[in-house]
Write a structure and sequence with these properties.
This protein is an alpha/beta fold. It folds into two domains: 230 residues, P-loop containing nucleotide triphosphate hydrolases (Rossmann fold); 244 residues, 3-Layer(aba) Sandwich (Rossmann fold). It is built from 17 helices and 22 strands. The strands form five sheets. The chain has a six-stranded mixed sheet, sandwiched between helices. It has a six-stranded mixed sheet with strand order 16-19-20-13-21-22, sandwiched between helices. β9 and β10 form a beta hairpin. α14 runs parallel beside α15. The longest helix is centred in the middle third of the chain and has 16 residues. It is globular. The N and C termini lie far apart (55 Å).
Length: 500
């Protein structure tokens, strides 16, 4: 890619960016949220068209107008949100949308080819399995297999380990090594610095739409140097926190049960725990094991079939979301696009959503525009939200800056209980540092913080106690200072500790 430029209204997303990927190489593409990584990759797979610049594949100048064009050139992308149909089989998903299939696809031959590819790359995928019966790690293998089946030689992986256990991340590394040994190449987008050091051959850093560094990974001394390259300043990898002095229980969950519609295994299976003031209580687990439903039950978004939820000493079981909000509970949801913001509303309007009923932003039930504007500008500055203006529709921000908008609103509103679900997912190392500092600040100010995260390092860094969920149950609750990523990873995989 040579001198690629792409602009959107008010934003230069890519400013004369050049990128080179060699055969058999893993290139780690790094940058803060909004740096232009996704835009650059979306032009390589044909979702966007560059305003200027050229793309050469195997030395030949190419115009890539669509994802079909990119796949025909051997380029495929695995998105952070998997593109699979849950009620279809592995084999059906792998060939779905392929133009050269006959009206009645020869599924027997297709399954044989899938099985052969699966064995060749150590993917352990079975063609007849239904997608919704697979773990997240298995679904990711299906995504990789889908690209291999279609002949991709250049793989773009967007945050590929965000939803994997440590063991599954190591498996992915081995799969990549097998593919590279056959001359395939990969562009690897991640915010996990240790993965960059272990997975990649070359690192390229984007900052504010420009390429600011390209360096062999072997020439980078350590994770600290890598993080500093990315954000242009020193990044803290340890955080100051006050002494652990928990107070009264602010969140009390007892024997919580949630049943699926139509029967089957419980989504929540007799879940019990408490979160005290001045405490960060972490919940670990691979996505899909009940963590999100648990937090949505606590915040009134889902009803439970048994058990109780007490917030601030009051029974709030199956109360409405508005009642929970009025009780002073802040919620950073897992799905920022669907539940965290209203995309067509402005950044300023999204920031004021929790406070527009208060005297701070309204008078006699009339919202005061001047107060809302001052309030929004203050939060934009405090939380370094990158936006052309507060009047910009929030849907036009990068994913990381949408997340910052939600964080700013919820942390500002917090009145004693903060429920944060994957708050640093998709954030760059600098923004992640700020999120963790804000969580610790809330804890040190006496709030009860319930933190759901797939990042074991994050939980060990900021949490005081950690519960591990597997298939709707709490496997164990551990002292964060007395456990390890290996122990947590085993519990996440459903392996109980001896004596439990």
């Amino acid at each position: 890619m040579i001198d690629i430029t792409k602009t959107f209204p008010g934003v230069v997303a890519n400013d004369r960016v050049s990128l080179t990927l060699h055969k058999g190489e893993v290139l780690a593409l790094l940058g803060e949220n909004g740096a232009g990584k996704s835009t650059l990759m979306n032009m390589l797979i044909g979702l966007y068209q560059p305003d200027s610049g050229s793309i050469f594949i195997n030395g030949v100048h190419r115009q890539i107008h669509s994802p079909q064009d990119s796949m025909a050139l051997g380029i495929g992308m695995i998105h952070q949100e998997f593109m699979l149909v849950g009620n279809m089989s592995v084999a059906e998903n792998i060939v779905l949308g392929m133009k050269d299939l006959p009206f009645v696809p020869p599924m027997g031959e297709i399954k044989k080819k899938i099985t052969a590819l699966s064995k060749r790359y150590g993917l352990q995928v079975y063609p007849d399995k239904i997608i919704h019966d697979l773990s997240v790690g298995e679904q990711q293998r299906v995504e990789i297999l889908k690209l291999l089946y279609r002949g991709a030689d250049i793989l773009i992986l967007d945050e590929p380990t965000a939803v994997l256990t440590p063991g599954e991340s190591r498996d992915l590394n081995e799969i990549l090594k097998r593919m590279l040994s056959e001359g395939k190449s990969a562009i690897f987008i991640t915010h996990k610095m240790d993965e960059v050091m272990s997975f990649s051959h070359t690192v390229q850093v984007l900052r504010r739409g420009k390429s600011v560094a390209v360096k062999p990974t072997g020439d980078i001394a350590n994770v600290q140097e890598l993080a500093n390259m990315m954000v242009g300043r020193d990044v803290l990898f340890s955080l100051d926190r006050g002494p652990y002095e928990p107070g009264l229980a602010m969140v009390e969950v007892k024997d919580l049960v949630m049943l699926p519609i139509g029967g089957g295994k419980p989504i929540l299976d007799n879940v019990s725990f408490s979160v005290r003031s001045g405490e960060i209580f972490g919940i670990a687990g691979v996505a899909g094991n009940g963590q999100q439903q648990l937090t949505e039950a606590i915040t009134g978004l889902l009803h439970v079939d048994g058990g109780s939820i007490h917030l601030g000493g009051k029974n709030m079981t199956n109360k409405s979301p508005l009642a929970i909000i009025k009780g002073g509970v802040s919620h950073i949801p897992a799905d920022r696009g669907r539940m965290g913001v209203v995309g067509d509303m402005s950044v300023g309007e999204n920031l004021s959503m929790k406070k527009y009923r208060t005297a701070e932003l309204s008078h006699n039930a009339v919202m005061k525009k001047s107060r809302i504007r001052r309030f929004a500008e203050d939060l934009i500055e405090r939380f370094t939200i990158k936006t052309p203006s507060q009047d910009t529709s929030v849907k036009f921000l990068s994913g990381g800056n949408i997340q910052k908008t939600i964080l700013a609103r919820e942390i500002d509103f917090c009145r004693g209980i903060l429920i944060a679900v994957y708050p640093s997912r998709g954030l760059d190392v600098g923004a992640t540092e700020a999120v963790r500092q804000n969580l610790i600040k809330q804890r040190d100010q006496g709030s009860a913080v319930l933190l759901v995260s797939e990042e074991l390092e994050e939980l060990l860094m900021v949490a005081d106690r950690i519960a591990v969920m597997f298939e709707g149950r709490i496997m164990d609750i551990l002292d964060a200072n007395k456990t390890t990523t290996e122990e947590l990873g085993m519990l996440m995989a459903g392996v109980a500790r001896e004596g439990r």
